[in-house]
Amino acid sequence: MFKRFSKFLPVAFCMLLSVSTFAQAGEAPPAAPPAAATPAVAEERPSVLSAFFVIKEKGEDGKQHFETFGCTLIWFLMVCSFVCTSLMLMFFLKARLQVVMPPENRDAIKQLLEQGKTDPRKYKEALELAEADPSYFGRLTYAALKDAPHGFSVMERSLEEAAAAQLARKIRPYEVLNIVGNVGPMLGLFGTVQGMIMSFFKLVSGGGNADPKELAAGISTALVATFWGMVVAIPALIAYAVLRNLTEHNCAEVLLEVDGLISQFRPSKKKADPAAAPAPAPAPARPASRPE
Question: Which pLDDT does position 169 carry in this prediction?
């Protein structure tokens, strides 16, 4: 009998607990004595955003003042973040394949080179068009076509040298993001160390019983500076890696395209290889002379 109803015991216990809680909540609380009239004091409630943008400390007059070093460092990191974001957008727009190799210039030069097989004057027009094209495709095409009179091997060597030089020239501006990504955490760490030194200095000057509000100013400097250092560094390093890979990939595509355009200048083999030619038949042996 007890085993049959034992499974209902937890339910009954929960019901009794809820009823007792409801009864206690229904009782009216004792009336509080009337408080003396006190002047209303406006309680200062800092917003969440102010914790990330403004660092304050209390001066001797009891008023809030800006913490000079922390504010200067944080606003400097914010400016770096804005500059890096603008550079990222500009670099991504310039690294697109349509900018590195304009389709209209590629098609025009390709058509002129095809027409040059019958009209040699078209080669000069293609060379002038490539010279006027400031893109990566135009620089490589001009470097290869201008050495066409010297032979195909010279064209290939000029193409490879121009590709390496132009690729380094396109990647060099990305080093700004790499530098900011590596220096940003160091600036944040600099603010962290300065904030902790400031907090311990106030702790020592207060004889070990410093006001928590005074300690909070230094700790706030440390945390907020570290936060903005990471905000600047993480996107900058990610953008640097992505831009470098994207640029190298697009430049490799352009190099293959230009190599295909100048392949018509490759000399054809008119003579067979002497090493692969069949050996001449041996001369017939002379008959031995009979002795007299």
Answer: 93
Q: Residue 62: is its pLDDT beyond 70?
A: no
| Residues 70, 225 contacting (CB under 8 angstroms) | yes
How does strand 56-58 pair with strand 64-66? antiparallel
The rounded distance, in Å, linking the Cα atoms of 174 and 178 is 7
Record the tokens describing residue 77, joined without a space. 């990191």
Q: Are 174 and 244 in contact (CB under 8 A)?
A: yes
Separation between Cα atoms, residue 255 and residue 151, nearest integer Å: 19
Alpha-carbon span 20 to 38, nearest angstrom: 38
Closest to 100 measured CA to CA, from 18, 16, 171, 183: 171
Three-state DSSP state, 57: strand
Q: Which amino acid is at 271?
A: K
Structural tokens at position 266? 């490759």
* Bridge partners, residue 58, by sequence: 64
Contact 259, 157 (CB under 8 A): no
Distance CA 214, CA 204 (A): 12
User: What is this structure's pTM?
Assistant: 0.67
